[in-house]
Predict the structure.
Amino acid sequence: MLRLGIIGATGYVGAEIVRLLALRDDMKITTVVSNSFAGQPFSEVYPSFRGIYDEICDGMDIDKVADKADFFITALPHGVSTTVIPRLLEKGKRIIDHSGDFRFRDVKVYEEWYKVTHSSPELVSRAVYGLPELYRDKIKNADLVADPGCYPTCSILGIAPALANKLVSHKNIVISAASGVSGAGRKSDLPYAFCEVDENYKAYGVVNHRHTPEIEQELSLICGEEVIVSFTPHLVPMKRGMLATITLDLTDAEITADEVRKAYLDFYRNEPFVRILPSGQLPQTKLVSGSNYIDIGISVDKRAKKLIIISALDNLGKGSASQAIQALNIMAGFEETRGLLTPGLYL
Amino acid sequence: MLRLGIIGATGYVGAEIVRLLALRDDMKITTVVSNSFAGQPFSEVYPSFRGIYDEICDGMDIDKVADKADFFITALPHGVSTTVIPRLLEKGKRIIDHSGDFRFRDVKVYEEWYKVTHSSPELVSRAVYGLPELYRDKIKNADLVADPGCYPTCSILGIAPALANKLVSHKNIVISAASGVSGAGRKSDLPYAFCEVDENYKAYGVVNHRHTPEIEQELSLICGEEVIVSFTPHLVPMKRGMLATITLDLTDAEITADEVRKAYLDFYRNEPFVRILPSGQLPQTKLVSGSNYIDIGISVDKRAKKLIIISALDNLGKGSASQAIQALNIMAGFEETRGLLTPGLYL
Amino acid sequence: MLRLGIIGATGYVGAEIVRLLALRDDMKITTVVSNSFAGQPFSEVYPSFRGIYDEICDGMDIDKVADKADFFITALPHGVSTTVIPRLLEKGKRIIDHSGDFRFRDVKVYEEWYKVTHSSPELVSRAVYGLPELYRDKIKNADLVADPGCYPTCSILGIAPALANKLVSHKNIVISAASGVSGAGRKSDLPYAFCEVDENYKAYGVVNHRHTPEIEQELSLICGEEVIVSFTPHLVPMKRGMLATITLDLTDAEITADEVRKAYLDFYRNEPFVRILPSGQLPQTKLVSGSNYIDIGISVDKRAKKLIIISALDNLGKGSASQAIQALNIMAGFEETRGLLTPGLYL
Amino acid sequence: MLRLGIIGATGYVGAEIVRLLALRDDMKITTVVSNSFAGQPFSEVYPSFRGIYDEICDGMDIDKVADKADFFITALPHGVSTTVIPRLLEKGKRIIDHSGDFRFRDVKVYEEWYKVTHSSPELVSRAVYGLPELYRDKIKNADLVADPGCYPTCSILGIAPALANKLVSHKNIVISAASGVSGAGRKSDLPYAFCEVDENYKAYGVVNHRHTPEIEQELSLICGEEVIVSFTPHLVPMKRGMLATITLDLTDAEITADEVRKAYLDFYRNEPFVRILPSGQLPQTKLVSGSNYIDIGISVDKRAKKLIIISALDNLGKGSASQAIQALNIMAGFEETRGLLTPGLYL
C-alpha cells in the first residue's frame, strides 16, 4: 500500500487530489498537511468529504509529517516549495511539486519571471518536468517531479506534434488561452469574489504571465531553436476548465487539416489521455471537466496560411491534480491510467 | 457480468448513468437505446465519452434490444414507460423506471395529476417505490422498481424521521424546494435557453407540480394519516443540485434541535448515503453534487414552534441516476454502495 | 439643484445609487465618501464609471463632508450609522440610512437581534420606515428615513394586502426567500468567492436572520396583532435579484385567486412600482433586475387552504438603492418616479 | 417627435432597443413588428416591460407598418432584410439594418461567405457602414445604414489607430475574440440550452466565421492594402459582453505602450464612446455591459515585438442595439450621445 502525503492539501488542487484518491485501494493518503487548517478534520474544510475522508489536517512540521508517507505531493506557493522539498528529499521521499520552482532548467529564467531568488538551485537539474507525454521514462525513476503548469500543459501538448514535425514555424506562435476561476486557487481576494467575476470576461497577465517562459522552454527543446511565444491568458466565469487557441504559421501552405491530423494522431498514438478530435469537431472545456483528458482540435486557415489548434483540458485535471496522479502512477509502478479514465462531467 | 440496457439513454439521466457505470467491471452496459440518436455512437451525442463509451445507440425496437440485457433502466417520459415496460416484463427482464408511471399506488391519483390514462394499471401493484431507505427489502426481489422523483426523495427523506417519531404534526407541512436546470431534462425549449435562465430565479409549477402527490403518498404511509403538503418548486441558475426547505409544526414546543437530531441519526443509523449534519451546519447543493449522498440539516425555531429541515441532494444523483444504480445494486445482489461512495464535486 | 452626499459610496449599494443618479440633471452627487478608497477617483474603484463619474472619494470626515451636501444617503454597516447620523442631523441634513439601525421602533428588539447596544436610541422615534407604499406621507417631511431591508420589502409588500384585508391568518406565516450574492455586499470573504458560490444553492441564517423582526414589526402594525414569522433565506448563484415564496393560511377556504388578486390590485392601485401579475403568471427575478419594480404573483392552493404569494424585486433596486432614491424623490419634492421607471434588464 | 418602427423587435437586439428607447421623450416606437408574436403585447413576450411598453406587436405586413413610422430599425436574419428593405426605401423610409446584407461593398464577398445570392445588389452602394467613428458624416444623410457586426466593431475600433498610423503591419493580424451567449440571438436550439452552455468555454466558427470578411474589408480600406486576418471567436458562459484580443506585428520594435496609447488617444480624441485605458489597465466586459462604450487596453510585448490590443464592448450595446441608436441619433439630427451615456452595469 503506497503511503502518500499531500502538503498544502486544503487548496483546490489538494482537494481535487483527495477526491481522486480517497477511494483508491492501492494507495492511502496518510497525511494531509495544511498551515491554515491544522488540527481540523479535512471534511470540515471541504464538507463534501464528510464520511469519506475525515482525517485531521497535520500542521506544517516537515520532520513529523515526513515519517508518515513515502511519496509526497506538494501544492504550495512558489518559493515555499523550495524550503520544504530539500528536507523531504534528504529523507529519501519522492515528490511531485505543483509550484513553478522546479520547472525551469535555467534558474535565471525562473528568477527573472518569478521575481525571487531560488533557494535550492542545486536541485533544479535533479527535477524532471512532469509531462508524461514527453518525459515518461524520466518520471519513472525521478525523485522530484515538477508538475507542469496548466497553460503550459494545454499549450505544449497542442503545439508539440506540429513543431516536432516542422509543419509550422517556430516563430510567430500566438497563444490566446482562457481558464476557469479555480486556476487562481482558493483565495478570498476581492477580484475573485462572485459578484466581481460572474458575467465577466477579461484578459489578465498580458505580456508577463509566468507560464510564458515555461511554454517557451519546452517548445525550444522540441524544435532546437529559441522559441518566443506571444501568450495572453483570460479569465472565464466558470469554475473549471482551460482552453488554448493557438495560431501557428504553416511551413507548407498547401497542407490540409487531415494531413496535420495524421501527424498528431501518430505523435500521440500511445497516449491514453490525449484525444485528437475528428475533422469538424472542436474541443469544449466541459467535455474534459473533471477528467485527465486533453482534447485537441485541428483547423487549417488556408487564406491566412495558419494552423489553428484548439486544445482543452481541466485546469484541476490534466492541468494539475490528475496529471500529478498520472505521474505518481508512473513513479510508483502502477498502471499509468489507474483511477484516471473517468469521463468528463458533461453536467 | 450483469448485462444492463438503458432505454432513453441520451437524456441527462441516461448520460449520468453511463458516466457512473462505464468503468464498472461487474456490469456492462450492453445497449443504449435512443429514439433520436439511433445509429449514432453514444460518444458523438456526449463527446465527453469519446474513447470511453463509444457504443452505437440502438433504436427503440423493444423486442430486439430486450435480448441484449437482463436488467433495464428506462429513462422515458411518463406515458411512454407504460408502453415499453409490459413487454420487457413479459420477457422476464427486471426494470428500474424513471418516470412517474409506476410510483403511485392509486392509479386515479396518477391520472388526475398527470392528465393521462394509465395504460398498464395492472402492473402498478407489482411495482416497488425505489427508495432504499424505506423499501430496501422489497427492492431486492422486485422486477419493477419505480425510481422516485427528485423532489420526493429530497422531501420524504427530510421529513420521514420527524413524522415517524411524531415530533411534528402531519398537518401544515410546507416544502419550498429548488432545483438545478438539468432537472428539466435535455430540452431545447426556449425557457431553458441559457440567456433565459442565467442570472434568474423563479418559482414554477406552483400548486400543481406532479411531485406533490408522490410526496403525500409516502408521507401518508409513514404516519398513517392523509397528508396534504404545500409544495413550491423553484428553478436555480445552476446545472445540478436540489435543496428542500421544509417547515414543520413541532408537536412539542420545548424540543431542542439536538434531540431532533438524535432521532434523525437513529432513523438513518444504517444508511450509507444519508448524512445528518452536526449542529450549526447547513447543507449546500455543491457538497453532494455528482454524488449519491443526501445531506440533512436540522434547526428548531423556538419562537415560531417550527422544525426547519434543509435537505440537499443532486437531482441527477440521489434524485435520479445514482439512486437507480443503488436500487440496481440491491436488485442484483451487489454491495449496495458499489461505485457510489465518491464524494461530491466541491468544484 | 439638490446636492447629495453618499457615505459608504464604494459598496455595491453606493455604486448602484451613483449609477442611477450620475446622469440626473436635477440633482448632483457632490461627495462620495469612502473609508477604504479616500483620495481615489470613484471611477478607479468602479471603472465602469470612467468618463461618467470621476470624482475623488472623500474620507470619512463628517464635519468636512457635511458642508458639501444637503441630503445624505448612508450605506454603512449597522452600528456605524449610529455614530455618523446624529452629527449630520445636528447640521440640519436630511438622511436616508441603509443600515438596520433606525428601522426598529423598539430599540430592545434591535439590540437583541443585532447584538449591539444602540448608541442613539433617542433618534429612533424620529426615524421613518422608508417604505413609500406604507409611509409615503411621513417620508415627505422626514429628516431621517430608514431604508427598509431587501427581504422585508419583498415580504411585507407581498403580505400586506392579504393581511390588511384579513384574507389570511396572522399566524403561521412561512417565508422562504432567496437572494443574489450582491446582497452580502462587496466582500472579499471566502464564502463569497466565485468558486465557492457558483453552481451552489444553500440556505443561510436559518432561524436567526436579522430581517425577521423587521418583517414582524411591520406585519404586526398592519394587522394589530403580534406576528411571528418563520423566515428562511437562501443564496442563489446570481448577482442580483430576490424572490420570496410566502405561504399563508387562508381564512376563507373558498376564496379564489382572482378574488385575492382584486384585493391586491386595489391595495396597490396608485403604486407605480408594484405590479400585480395576471392569473397564471409568476414573477422572475430577471424581470425586475436593475429596476425599482416589485412583481407579485398570486396562487391559491385549495387543497392545502393556503395562499401562495411569490414576490420578486432587485435586492439592489427596490430592495435598497432605487428604493432609497424613491424616498429621496419624495423627500425632495420631485416626481416620485423620476429616474426610476426604466424596465428590468431582461439580459 | 420621431416615429420609429422596429422590425424583428422580439429578438434580443430588438428588446434591447426598446429598453433603451422606451422612456425617450424625443422619439416614439410606433410599431414593433414580429412574425412570431404578432397580436401579442410586447410586454407579454418580455414581461420586464409590463406597464412600460405594452404595445401590441404588428405582423410582418410591410405596407401596413411602413405608414406607422419614418425611421426603421430592422433586426432580421440575413437574406430576409434584403426582401424588406427595398420596399421601405421606396416609401422614403430611412433604415438601420442589423443583418450582414448591406455591410459589404463587394456583393461577391457577401455571397461567398453567406452562401446566398444577394437579392438587392443594386442597393449595396447606397448603404453606409454604420460605424460612427469611421463614417459619421456619411451616416448623417444616409437612408440605409448597415449596423456593423459585434466582432467587427470590437476588432476594427481596436486596430484602426495602429493600422492608420502604420504602427503595425497589415499582415499577420490575429484576432481571438469571445462573446456572451446573447450574441447568438433568442434561440431555442439545444447548443444554447443552459445546461449545454453553462460552465463551458469553446471556440466556434473557426476559420469560417462571417465576420471575418467584414473586418478585412474595413481594415483594408484603412490601410490601402488587402488585409487577411486570422479570426477565432469563442463562446463564454455569460449573457452579454464581447472582448477581442488582438495580436499585431509592430513595425518599430522600440515603440513603447505609451507612444501607442498617444496615437490611440489622438485618433479617438473626439469620440464619446471610445475609452482608451491608462497604462496598466485592461478592459473587462462587465465594465461596458449595458452601455454603448468600448474600452481599449494597450500592451506592448517587447520580446515578441507584438502590440497586444484588448478591446471590450457589449455585444448588445456598442456591438448592435445601442450602436444602432447612435446612428439613429446622427441620422435624425439629435445629439449623438442622447440616451447613451449611461455607465455599464457593474453588477
Residues 218 and 226 of chain B are 10 Å apart (CA to CA).
